[in-house]
Amino acid sequence: MSKIPRQKDPRPLFLTELERPELEAALGELGHPRFRAQQIFHWMYRRGVPDLDAMTDLPRELRTALAAVATLTTPALVHRERSIDGTEKFLLRLADGRQIESVFIPDTPAMTFCLSTQVGCAMACAFCLTGKMGLARHLTAGEIVGQVRVLVHALDMRDAPFNIVLMGMGEPLHNYDETMKALRILGDPHGFALSPRRVTLSTVGLLPALERLAQEPMMPNLAISLHAPTDAQRGDLVPINRTYGVKEIIDACKRFPLRKRGRITFEYVLLAGVNDAPQDARRLAKLLAGVRSKVNLIPLNAAAGIPFERPSDEAIDRFAKILADHHLIVSVRKSRGRDIRAACGQLIVEGQRKSPAQQLAVMM
Ligand code: SAH
């Protein structure tokens, strides 16, 4: 398991890494009232102020005391690129120089931020470019939330509601603690006050973490990257399936506590000649019988280095129709931002690949 590098800074208090109760405790230790944490949260998240000096309603002594012990780090916006469909991709640089991508999808009525949870990814799904990078490291909670801080500011969306999908680089359940902490910080009523209903966590289905998630008070919507109805097929596409198989994942989904009218989304990347046959659709329908599900078909976003092809529109329609005929709720994901390589599975930051030896070290 990779360690999250904390910057070597003589000031040990990383403000953006703290949940509000933690900040309250730290303020208490400094001899300041705990309610100041509310003000600081408001400045950092609602006003989007990136430094302590600008927090003008904090008493000067508190600002001086904090300046001595605390840092407020914000990912640097390196580059942004806009698709013809309005989707925007943001390249961000973290404090240690590593880079990640986040995507803004301006669907109406909901604006959506697609966030990364890791630099790279260890899951190595056969059709995903991020998977080709390997895992460089996990993101901290502050780095996950930092993407929202940067995007809200860059897009001038301070008062606009938004949704979050954890579908950028990385496997969120592989970085469980920091991801859940990020959701708690995002949900804080004195910060972004984001309801977990506005968050969708997408996962390959790491079973122990999925079972932990089922107990969480801040429960996001769940999306499972299924991609195939049998272990034989899925094992070739999503290597972790050799550890946590299709049946176990579906059983865990059946036990997963859902909100009233809640459903689990099953993502299914359609690959020509691999998992798009009518028989695959029928098997999928049988597998999902009895699960409160909706199926999101994702026609492959093809790319150089990805050894698969997108099925024809007819094959996609035929697949969707078979599922619908079996009374499943089906949608076909519109591919957004393909011209700027911001679509699903296309996020990759060059020059961050690890050598196989480094990769192994990271995973242990
Ligand atoms: N690790 C998480 C979230 C990141 S990927 C997960 O696997 O769910 C978000 C979605 O994009 C996943 O369903 C993933 O399988 C899909 N995806 C990856 N590469 C793709 C590609 N080339 N074309 C279409 N979808 C892709």
Structural class: alpha/beta
The H/E string reads EHHHEEEEEEHEHEHEHEHHEHEHEH
Q: Give the C-alpha Rg.
A: 21 Å
Roughly how much helix do the residues carry, as a percent range? 25-40%
Strand order of the largest sheet: 3-4-5-6-9-10-11-12-13-14
What is the overall pLDDT average?
Answer: 92
Please describe the topology of this protein.
Blueprint: E1 13-14, H1 20-29, H2 36-46, H3 60-69, E2 70-71, E3 76-82, E4 88-93, E5 99-105, E6 111-114, E7 118-120, H4 129-133, E8 135-138, H5 141-154, E9 162-166, H6 176-187, E10 199-203, H7 207-213, E11 221-225, H8 231-237, H9 246-255, E12 264-270, H10 278-288, E13 293-299, H11 313-325, E14 330-332, H12 356-363
Parallel strand pairs: 1-2, 6-9, 9-10, 10-11, 11-12, 12-13, 13-14
Antiparallel strand pairs: 3-4, 4-5, 5-6, 7-8
Bound molecules: S-adenosyl-L-homocysteine.
S-adenosyl-L-homocysteine (SAH) binds next to β10 and β12.
Give a written overview of the molecule.
This protein is α/β, with parallel strands linked by helices. The chain contains 12 helices and 14 strands. It has helices spanning 20-29, 36-46, 60-69, 129-133, 141-154, 176-187, 207-213, 231-237, 246-255, 278-288, 313-325, 356-363, and strands at residues 13-14, 70-71, 76-82, 88-93, 99-105, 111-114, 118-120, 135-138, 162-166, 199-203, 221-225, 264-270, 293-299, 330-332. A 10-stranded mixed beta sheet has the order 3-4-5-6-9-10-11-12-13-14, with helices on one face. S-adenosyl-L-homocysteine binds next to strand 10 and strand 12.
